[in-house]
Amino acid sequence: MNPVNPAETPADEEAARLHRAKVWGGAERRLWDTSVDGTVGGRLRELLAWAEAAGHAEAPVDMYGNGLVELLERRVAEELGLPAAVFFPTGTMAQQVALRCWAGRTGSPVVALHPLAHPEVHEGGALGAVSGLRTVHLTDEPRLPTAEEVRDHPEPFGALMLELPLRDAGFVLPSWEELTEVVAAARERDAVVHFDGARLWESTTRLGRGLPEIAGLADSVYVSFYKSLGGLSGAALAGPEDVMEEARVWRHRYGGLVAQNYPAALSALRGLDVELPRLPSYAAHARVVADAIREAFAEAGTGWFRVHPETPHTHQFQVWLPYDPEALTAAALAQTEDTGIAFFRRWFSPGAGGPPGVAVTELTVTEPGLAWTAQNVKEAVRDFLARVEG
After folding, report:
1. CB under 8 Å to 228, separation ≥6 — which residues?
2. Which of 62, 103, 116, 290 could form a disulfide with 67 if both were Cys (CB 3.0 to 4.6 A apart)?
3. Closest Cα partner for 272 from 73, 123, 120, 109?
């Protein structure tokens, strides 16, 4: 998705960003908390309070991956039911290392993935520029590839990367049966399977399976700590012990062996303890919110709109409206400034490949959103629309 106004100067955009963060972060009522809500002091005090309650406050700080980082790696491996895990400072680095390790084993630098997958859209061509890998696309549809598309692709590939859920297509997931068939089709081609699981934590509701069974389908899995778990930063790569040992070597070569990571590791452990058990309730309530939004638009005679997917696959989903994204963002900001309610936040154009005259936003439901009834949602949507149309 493109920024609201790419013509703004960097200084203008930064000032606007800080203003939005202050307004939405200070909202009295909101659907979700984001990584930029709050202040430095508030976030650190909250983390310290949890560390003291969990018995981690007096633990020694880590140095080059020991201590709390090792504890986190063991916890991730346990949660995913995989032999080993390695902490990385970023998911971009973790995935490059994973796919590079598999390329060395398969003898193929070709990675099959979706054109909307994170490495294709948000990483500046890093797989090719940094790691010497080449990508191919199995489908252009806004969903993950089918087993037939995997089998019928005319070019050999060594690895199949599946982003679960596929964020830029609307946080969409396949069914469990579709996923197992796709993995089996990749195996028939002697390709390894890597899951981009930045948001895998919340995929259990839609897939109807626990994390170990889901992760067990893949040869390696990347997970993020700051997206759904509310961590400060960081990621992990999990898989076979020999591959993870090689991943540690490449992490160092890529500049990822940071001297100390205890704040990030501590916040990730908090996320696993506090947020992970809540994610199924967030996903369930996202369906209530999505239904109420759709009903509010229909009752207001909005005309064309989309809530996508109609039934959210996770606790995140898209909303589309036929208005200028700047106007919608301004209305959302004004609603929070006037009422203290943050419902919609920033809106975007769909980019060069999308239809003109429409805008899209992403909604998330986390702990603050559980208190919202369907009626609360409808009232917020009606107020928002009045500001747009007024």
Report:
1. 199, 201, 202, 271, 275, 279, 315
2. 62
3. 73
- Pair 216, 121: CB distance under 8 Å: no
The tokens describing 380, both together, are 């917020």
For 306-347, what is each residue's pLDDT tens digit? 999 999 999 999 999 999 999 999 999 999 999 999 999 999
With pLDDT > 70 as the criterion, what percentage of the chain qualifies? 97
Q: What are phi and psi of 353, to 5 degrees?
A: -85, -5
Contact 136, 130 (CB under 8 A): no
DSSP state, residue 271: I
Please, are residues 20 and 4 in contact by the beta-carbon 8 Å criterion? Answer: no
Q: For residue 212, give the amino acid letter.
A: P
pLDDT at 35: 79
Q: Is residue 277 packed enough to be buried (19+ CB in 10 Å), middle (13-18) or exposed (0-12)? A: exposed
Question: Rounded distance, CA 107 to CA 110, Å?
Answer: 9
Give 201 or 390, the one with higher predicted confidence. Answer: 201
- The residues near 79 (Cβ < 8 Å, ≥ 6 apart) are 211, 212, 272, 276
Please say whether the dihedral angle defined by the alpha carbons of residues 364, 370, 373 and 376, taken in this order, is positive or negative. Answer: negative
Strands of the sheet with 159-163, listed across from one edge: 84-88, 235-239, 220-224, 192-197, 159-163, 110-113, 134-137
The bridge status of strand 341-342 relative to strand 29-30 is parallel
Q: List, for residues 70-98, the tens digit of each pLDDT value.
A: 999 999 999 999 999 999 999 999 999 99
3-state class (DSSP) for residue 217: coil
Q: Taking the chain, what is the end-to-end CA distance rounded to the nearest angstrom? A: 26
